[in-house]
Amino acid sequence: MSKVKPMTIHYISDFRAINELNHLLNHIKYITRASSLPITNIPPDYPKIWKERFQFEKSIRKDAQLAITFNMALPNDRINDTNFFEDVATFISEFFNLAPNTINYAVHRNDPNNIHIHIVMYPRTKEGKKLRTRGTLSQFHMSWRKFLELYGYSIKQDDIKLDHIGYKRPKDLQKYYELQN
After folding, report:
1. What's the Cα-to-Cα distance from 69 to each of 46, 106, 123, 167, rounded to whole Å?
2. What is the pTM of this model?
3. How remote is the C-alpha of 77 from its chain's centroid?
4. How far is C-alpha 70 from the geometric centre of its chain's CA atoms?
5. Most exposed of 15, 19, 71, 113 (fewest Cβ within 10 Å)?
């Protein structure tokens, strides 16, 4: 039996929709920069691929979303586990029911205490429908927790610490916002 590895659950952050091609191409260039020691599945011809997607989306709707991007912290002991990174991308693709070859990632490993993955996904399902993310993020968090538990991690949900500003945020975000105002 393998040893259970305790860790605090890591949720997604910086979740945003991008509707400008230049913004997306600059974001991809940034996340694949050499200084972050990335492991990536982003193809070399990504500008051409995303330009075609952009033209298609803009032909349907002028304010169309081109991509959805977000980051996720990964277990630090998986720093060189490329199979795990592929499994994470597959998990995300299956969760959101994405069309094949529409999810790209770059794993940053330059800080062994901050392994994280940047996700860039084209927001269309396998059926060709526009991806709807409203209301699914809490379900995603629960599924992510189960995914990590399958890999032998014992998930501990602690209060989120904001050590860099000397504050420990309560679990109840409403109270957090009240304290800030």
Report:
1. 15, 11, 10, 27
2. 0.78
3. 18
4. 4
5. 113
Name the residue type at position 106: A
- Token pair of 58 as six digits: 């803009």
Task: Look at residue 169 and tell me whether its pLDDT is greater than 50.
Answer: no
Q: pLDDT tens across 96-107, in order?
A: 999 888 999 999
3-class SS of residue 68 = strand
CB 11 within 8 A of CB 173: no
Pairing relationship of beta strands 153-156 and 5-8 according to DSSP bridges: parallel
Tally the C-alpha atoms within 13 A of residue 137's C-alpha that lie toward its C-beta: 11
pLDDT in tens, 58-68: 999 888 889 99
Please state the φ and ψ torsions of residue 104, each to the nearest 5 degrees: -125, 155
Q: What gap in Å lies between CA 181 and CA 172, rounded to an integer?
A: 15
- Which of 12, 7, 3 minimizes the C-alpha distance to 137? 12
Average pLDDT over residues 38-44: 91
